[in-house]
Design a protein that fits this description.
This protein is α/β, with parallel strands linked by helices and 171 residues long. The protein has a single domain, classed as Lumazine/riboflavin synthase (Rossmann fold). Helices cover 46% and strands 18% of the residues. It binds 5-nitro-6-ribityl-amino-2,4(1H,3H)-pyrimidinedione (INI).
Length: 171
């Protein structure tokens, strides 16, 4: 189903996952902040709803989406967080600027996640125009920040389930 017909937060709203005792980081880009701060609100709301203590959510701000991977790396280096959400909004312009930023950010976030072994979630909108961004930041297509938080919760749960030694398994 294309996003044209889909509320992208439907999955998040249906989720009953609970996450106890988690410390998580959020990196938010302040470029297009009328959008990205709505993504931030959605992410925090979903984390809190899932049982994450608001005081255990560390939010840092970076100037633009291009700086998201560096911000995420700074949080990961502190070794305090089980996972990170990166939030941004890169709106298509007249040049290919957006493509360079989006590719670099997606690659940077994936590399960080693979190298750290921790979830680093790509919560970056890549719309063609401001209306598409509004639709995905609490508008008719839901809130991508909410969706990113649900993905983080599921990935932390998965990581915990694999790290916790199970009785009777000798390896
Ligand atoms: N950063 C964004 O997050 N969104 C944009 O739409 C955007 N545009 O359009 O240029 C943008 N540019 C800034 C970029 O992310 C870096 O902050 C800048 O290039 C400095 O490294």
């Amino acid at each position: 189903m294309s996003s044209k017909d889909q509320n992208l937060s439907a999955k998040s709203l249906a989720s009953n996952v609970k996450l106890e005792n988690a410390k998580v980081g959020i990196v938010v880009s302040d470029w297009n902040q009328e959008i990205t701060h709505k993504l931030l609100d959605g992410a925090i709301q979903t984390l809190v709803k899932a049982g994450v203590d608001q005081e255990k959510i560390k939010t840092i701000h970076v100037p633009g989406a291009f700086e998201l991977p560096t911000g995420a790396k700074m949080l990961l280096q502190s070794d305090k967080y089980e996972g990170i959400i990166c939030l941004g909004c890169v709106i298509k312009g007249e040049t290919k600027h957006d493509e360079y930023i989006n590719n670099a950010v997606a690659n940077g976030i994936m590399q960080l996640s693979l190298i750290s072994g921790k979830p680093v979630i790509f919560g970056v909108l890549t719309p063609n125009d401001m209306q598409q961004a509004i639709d995905r930041a609490g508008g008719k297509h839901g809130n991508k920040g909410d969706e990113a938080a649900t993905t983080l919760i599921e990935m932390i749960e998965l990581n915990r389930s694999l790290l916790t030694p199970k009785k009777g398994i000798g390896y």
